[in-house]
C-alpha cells in the first residue's frame, strides 16, 4: 500500500510482488501510477477483521492518501504530515494550500489521541499524535498564509532521484 507516488526513491512494490506471488499493489487513483487496486477517498481496504479507510490528503502530491485505522486509533500519513513537519510542495503537483487544508480538514479532525505514523522521520522518531502535531508542528500551527510563506521559502534542492524515481514509480518500481 503506497501513500503516494514517490519522487525521492524507487518503490519496492514491484519487487515485493515478484517475491510474494499473489500480492496486489495499492495506490491512490489520483496518483496516475499503475497498481492492481486504485483507491479514492473513502474506500476501505479490508484484511481479516480489520479495515483501513483511505482519506485523500493531497498537497504534497495530487495522489496522497492517509490510511486511517479506526479500530486501533491510528493513521498512516505518508509524507502529508511528518513529525513536526510536512512533505514539500514545490514539485510533482504540490500545493501548499491543498496540503494545509488536507492536514487541517482530514488529519487534525481525527481524535486527539490517535497515533500518527508518517512515512519517515529524519530524527529517528516513529510516531506522534494528532494532539502533539496540532500543538507543536512549527509549520501547521500557523495560519494558511503564514504556512504558504514558509513553504514558498524552504529553498530545498531538487530531489536527487526524481528523474529516475518518477518514471519507475509510475510502473510499480519496475522499468
How would you describe this protein?
This protein has 175 residues and is α+β, with helices and mostly antiparallel strands. It has a single domain (12-168), classed as Ribonuclease Z/Hydroxyacylglutathione hydrolase-like (Metallo-beta-lactamase, Chain A, 4-Layer Sandwich). The protein has 5 helices and 10 strands. The chain has helices at 13-19, 96-107, 130-136, 144-152, 162-169, and strands spanning 26-28, 37-39, 44-47, 50-56, 65-69, 74-78, 81-82, 85-86, 115-118, 128-129. The strands form 3 sheets. Strands 3-4-5-6-9-10 form a 6-stranded mixed beta sheet. It is globular. The mean pLDDT is 94.
Task: Tell me the name of the CATH homologous superfamily.
Answer: Ribonuclease Z/Hydroxyacylglutathione hydrolase-like
Largest sheet: 6 strands, mixed
Helix content: 10-25%
Strand content: 15-25%
Task: Give the overall form.
Answer: globular
What structural category do the secondary elements indicate?
alpha+beta
The number of distinct structural domains comes to: 1
Strand order of the largest sheet: 3-4-5-6-9-10
Just name the CATH architecture.
4-Layer Sandwich
CATH class: Alpha Beta
Summed over residues and divided by their number, the pLDDT gives a mean of 94
Write down how many β-strands occur, each being a DSSP E stretch of 2 or more residues: 10
Q: In angstroms, what separates the terminal alpha carbons?
A: 19 Å
DSSP helical segment count: 5
Cofactor: Fe(2+)
Protein name: Persulfide dioxygenase ETHE1, mitochondrial
GO molecular function: metal ion binding; sulfur dioxygenase activity
Catalytic activity: S-sulfanylglutathione + O2 + H2O = sulfite + glutathione + 2 H(+)
